[in-house]
Structure formats: structure tokens, C-alpha cells
Design a protein that fits this description.
Number of strands: 21
Shape: elongated
CATH superfamily of the largest domain: DNA methylase specificity domains
Oligomer: single chain
Strand content: 15-25%
CATH class of the largest domain: Alpha Beta
Radius of gyration: 34 Å
Strand order of the largest sheet: 2-11-8-9-5
Distance between the termini: 11 Å
Helix content: 25-40%
Low-confidence stretches: 41-47, 49-57
Number of helices: 13
Length: 491
């Protein structure tokens, strides 16, 4: 249960009469209510609720039972409810005079505040007649945005039309009990049913007035408040622990996933088998394949990358593995075919960076050229190629293309030689080792990119082919378990 759910549950118990015991000596709120209603007269003040209009509460509104010595009331039957007003133009009324009237705005509050203790601006005294003057002890409700959020005034001043004010409640409600009742989920749900406005929700006077609330005897209200505040102090401690746990739960799967990838590319995720042979054989196969492709004109011969030096090697790998530069095992440094937007087939898949989920490489949106505005040049890619984002590589937007398409030039499509497992190479590119190395070598502050030289010189740990396949299977199993953990924790 989240801290907020716990608070909601406690407040619901409070307004249902389940938080403290009922006592005979407390009397009944029903008798007191009848006395109050006899004295209620219709108000003629501008914008103030007509008390007699909703005197009787509908049984259908009573969503739960209350103790026999409690009663239900409509808020407007026993309180004065009014809307604020703004002198206009307001800038003509704002003053720095210390004798000015407090101009109380929603911006003077914080989300978890109970009281309004100060106002940052003042208005001229002649603005009072065009606004609504409020006093300490009055309740203010936001009637838009975070609508229905209650605050208790500790200052006097004027309020604009973004506020509703509730006053003259003291004969039936303890101030603090009313605050918690108005803060309850029960109150919020009533306000939600009664709000108007398609986009911005707004409360008006009549709709707040129609809301019903249970009323315990005053002495019981005071005991309820004491119990709420005692329990909520413990909930605050619970909230601190919850937040720490949430951060840990969020961090744990990500850290575990990174750890698994790092273990995988260091040869620690599965055992090495003699029958798998050596990666040196694979490197020789890659060299022969490259020569054949160059001779056939399918790829261009590139400038040789530097020989790997001992002091470059970032970590130890099994003896059957080899280090090789990405430029020697892939077409990363080959010229990428491009096509102008105007020449695109309307049915071709167009992939942009926003279509790719960070970290996972999952495709979020599959959009064809006919369904989006395409401009400039696009890079052609083919099914099975690795797509790697050179822009903000720390987002790890990398994937294996599931089919042919075109993409933003910020994505680099490339093939892997020698039958290397593409999913293994993709795992290497997403590993903490590459993440740190590549991102420490980016250029550009606002739009950091990784250069071609950095990528083609990147050292890749190469296991034998069959071990690559086992590594990929183990990574997939591990990621599946991590996802199950996330599903259980973050339901």
C-alpha cells in the first residue's frame, strides 16, 4: 500500500466512525444540528449559497453507514460558501504599501500545506469591494486545477475567483476535523462528480454546497483529529521508507540488468566449452569474408584501424575469446545509402529516434511514410542490420531492424561479418563498458554525439560463435526474470 493509499484509508475510517470509540457522554450531533438549522436564514449576500435550497440529503448520496449518534449534512446547509473575486485590471490594484490588503493566491501555497500563513502580494484597500475579504479560520478551496484542495487561513486578506471560501462552520465542525474531512477521498470523489469544465475542472458554489459529510459530536471530532495526527506522524515515517524502497526497486532491476550484460561480455555468464573452438578462427573467417566482399565491390576497402595495444584492453576475457575493433568486424564505417524524402515509397517504414524506447530499444511506433511528415534525407537500412543512435548514445537507442526501412541520419545501420550473433554484439553495445567509454568520448554539449572514429576503434570482446549463442539465451532468460520482477513490484 502506498503512503497516499494508507492516508486515504485512515481518513475514510475516520469519517465512517471507525477510528475512535463512540461515547455516550459525547451526546448526539443530530440534536445539535436541529438547533442550528432553526437559526439558519436565507442569505442575500452576492455569491453566497442559499442555505435552505438543499436542506435534505438524498439517501443515494450516503455511500456508507455512520454511528447512530452522528448525522449527515449538506455542506451548504450549515456553512457559508462564497467565491472570490478579482478587481480588474489587477495590476492597477497591486501595491507595495505595507498597509495594503493581503492578496491571497494559489501560488502562496504548497502541495502538502495545511495552512496559508502569508501572501506575497498586497492590493489597495479600495480593491476590497471588488473582491472577497476572508478571515483567519476560514477555509479556502481551489476551484480549478488542483480543485477541491482545502487550506485553513491564518491571515486575513482578499481572494480572487480561483478560490471558494467556506466560513461559519464552527457551530457544527471542529476546524481540524473539517480539514481532514475535506481532504478525504470521499470529498474528492464527490467534487469530481460535481465539477464542470471539459478540460479544466472547476467547482462552483452550488456544487460544493450539495456535497454531504458525516458529522460526529464535537468532542468525538477532537478525538478523531488527535488520532489522525498521531497515526499520520507514523505514516510520514512509513512514507520515507517507502520512497527509499521505491528508489531501490527502480534502481535494482536496472543495475542488475547492467551487471548481467557486463558479466556476459566478460565471459562470466556461461561456461566455456572446448568444443566451441576459439574466437581466433572466427576472426580469420571475418577477414576472409571482408576480402571477398571488397573484391566483389560490395563494400569499400577502408583505412586500417590501429593494432590493439595491451594498455587499451579494459578487462580480462577467457583465453578462447579475442578482442577486435568494431570497424574490423562490421560495416559501421561504410558509406550509408541515402534517399530524399520526396523520393520515398509511401509504404516504406520511416524510423525516427522518438519511435524508439530508451534503454530497451523497443519500437514504440511503427509509421509509414504516408502517415507522417517526412523531410530532408533519410538513411536506408535493411532487415537484420544493427541500428545504433550516435546522438545521445547514453539513451541506448539500439536495435536489430525487424524489416527494411529508412531512418534518421542520427541512426547508423551496419552489418556484422563472419556470422557473429547480432544480438550478442547488440548486448555489448548496451553494456556498461561501452556506455561509459562511448559517452565519455562524445562531442557537443546540447546534442552530444559519438564520432565514427570512436566507434570503429571500439574494442569488442569476441567469444566463439556457439558461446555467443549461449550468452544471448542466458541474457534473454535473465531479462525475462527481471521483467517479471518489475511486473510484480510495479503493478
Amino acid at each position: 500500500m502506498t503512503p497516499q493509499q494508507l492516508r486515504n484509508s485512515i481518513l475514510q475510517m475516520a469519517i465512517e466512525g471507525k477510528l475512535v470509540e463512540q461515547r455516550i457522554e459525547d451526546g448526539s450531533s443530530k440534536e445539535f444540528l436541529e438547533t442550528i438549522l432553526k437559526d439558519v436564514k436565507e442569505s442575500n449576500n452576492n455569491g453566497v449559497y442559499d442555505h435552505n435550497k438543499f436542506l435534505n440529503s438524498n439517501e443515494n448520496d450516503k455511500s456508507f453507514s455512520i454511528p447512530s449518534n452522528w448525522c449527515w449534512v449538506r455542506l451548504g446547509d450549515i456553512c457559508s460558501i462564497a467565491r472570490g473575486g478579482s478587481p480588474r485590471p489587477i495590476k492597477d490594484y497591486i501595491t507595495n504599501d505595507p498597509n495594503g490588503i493581503n492578496w491571497i493566491k494559489i501560488g502562496d501555497t504548497n502541495k502538502d500545506d495545511k495552512y496559508i500563513n502569508k501572501a506575497t502580494e498586497k492590493i489597495k484597500p479600495d480593491g476590497i469591494k471588488k473582491s472577497r475579504f476572508v478571515c483567519p479560520g476560514d477555509f479556502l478551496l481551489t476551484n480549478s486545477m488542483s480543485f477541491g484542495r482545502p487550506y485553513i487561513l491564518n491571515i486575513e486578506g482578499c481572494i480572487h475567483d480561483g478560490w471558494l471560501v467556506i466560513s461559519q462552520y464552527e457551530k457544527l465542525f471542529d476546524k481540524n476535523f473539517l480539514f481532514w474531512a475535506l481532504s478525504s477521498r470521499f470529498a474528492y470523489e464527490q467534487f469530481c462528480k460535481k465539477v464542470s469544465g471539459a478540460v479544466v475542472k472547476n467547482l462552483n458554489i452550488d456544487k460544493v454546497a450539495k456535497s454531504i459529510f458525516p458529522v460526529p459530536p464535537i468532542r468525538e471530532q477532537i478525538r478523531i483529529v488527535e488520532r489522525i495526527e498521531k497515526i499520520f506522524s507514523l505514516v510520514d515515517l512509513y512514507s520515507e521508507k517507502w520512497e527509499k524502497l521505491e528508489k531501490l526497486n527502480q534502481k535494482f532491476p536496472n543495475d542488475l540488468q547492467k551487471s548481467i550484460l557486463q558479466e556476459a561480455i566478460q565471459g562470466k555468464l556461461c561456461e566455456q566449452k572446448d568444443e566451441d573452438g576459439s574466437a581466433k578462427e572466427l576472426i580469420e573467417k571475418i577477414s576472409l569474408e571482408k576480402e571477398r566482399l571488397i573484391e566483389s565491390g560490395q563494400i569499400k576497402k577502408q583505412k586500417a584501424v590501429p593494432v590493439i595495444q595491451e594498455d587499451e584492453i579494459p578487462f580480462d576475457i577467457p583465453s578462447s575469446w579475442c578482442w577486435e575493433r568494431l570497424g574490423n568486424i562490421s560495416t559501421y564505417n561504410q558509406t550509408k545509402p541515402k534517399i530524399k524524402a520526396i523520393d520515398l515509397d509511401r509504404l516504406i517504414w520511416v524510423l525516427d529516434l522518438d519511435d524508439i524506447e530508451k534503454d530497451t530499444g523497443k519500437i514504440l511506433r511503427y509509421v509509414k511514410a504516408k502517415d507522417k511528415k517526412v523531410s530532408g534525407e533519410k538513411v536506408v537500412f535493411h532487415k537484420g542490420q544493427i541500428l545504433y543512435s550516435k546522438l545521445r548514445p547514453y539513451l541506448k537507442k539500439a536495435l536489430i531492424a525487424p524489416e527494411d526501412g529508412v531512418c534518421t541520419p542520427e541512426l547508423v545501420p551496419f552489418d556484422i561479418f563472419g556470422g557473429c550473433n547480432r544480438n550478442y554484439i547488440l548486448s555489448v553495445l548496451k553494456s556498461p563498458y561501452v556506455d561509459f567509454g562511448v559517452n565519455s568520448a562524445t562531442y557537443g554539449v546540447k546534442m552530444p554525439r559519438v564520432g565514427v572514429e570512436t566507434m570503429i576503434n571500439l574494442l569488442i570482446p569476441i567469444p566463439p560463435i556457439r558461446e555467443q549463442e549461449r550468452i544471448v539465451k542466458n541474457i534473454d532468460k535473465s531479462h525475462s526474470l527481471i521483467q517479471r520482477f518489475k511486473d510484480l513490484v510495479f503493478v
